[in-house]
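Hi R.,

Here's the chain you asked about this morning:
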Amino acid sequence: MSLRKIEPTGLLVALVLMLSALVSPLKADGLTFGVKGAGTILLTEAFETNREGAEAAKGDHTEEALIPSVFVEYNLAEIGNIGDGWVIGLDYIPLKPEIADETRSTRDLTKANNVEADNPQVTQKAKADLKYHTTLYVETPGFWGGFYGKAGGIMTLLQTEENLGTGAEYGNDTILGAVAGIGFKRYMGNLLTKLEASYTAYETINLSCTNNETTNTPGCGKITADPQALALSFSIGYAF
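And here is the predicted structure, written out as tokens:
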């Protein structure tokens, strides 16, 4: 089964069950639950091509946001000693981070004889969000007093919300990603704090028009996008 056919909600359940299976044979006091706030810069480079493959539009979108999330993680060693244990964690963003939002005016080439000068001006409004954003990650044991490295895999649903004057429509898509980062953590009794910088790269998004499929109209084409993100986050959690 292709990963693209797995629903994000089903993946979230599967990841929680997998994490539970990993930690259940181990001591119960290694679990940490917490919240995170990430100051994030989302960068997206996108290309739009018409049905003939010619480039119709190109744009770069930058979105700055404070993105909250919740996490649960398990320390494979004694939580009071940051240098001892690897950490396995699961992070979930309950909101929908926005990666694209653009409005532009163009000629509707789906009308008349596809001659630009003969067609009316229309407004194209396009927006895309990331929904069910879930990360499964691993952190190294702490070194140099609390520094650690992090790597993980991401699955999320790209949800499109468009109002296009040409009548074109684009569907949603499940996409994968990878995150890498470095941070500093401290345990103060059962309280865990972390400061982390990270970089996230998502796979290339390819969305084809789902409208006018039989009319061969140049106004209904394809969108290709490459989203990525830079983040500086602060986390606080309680270790059992």
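One quick note: The helical segments are 8-23.

Cheers,
M.
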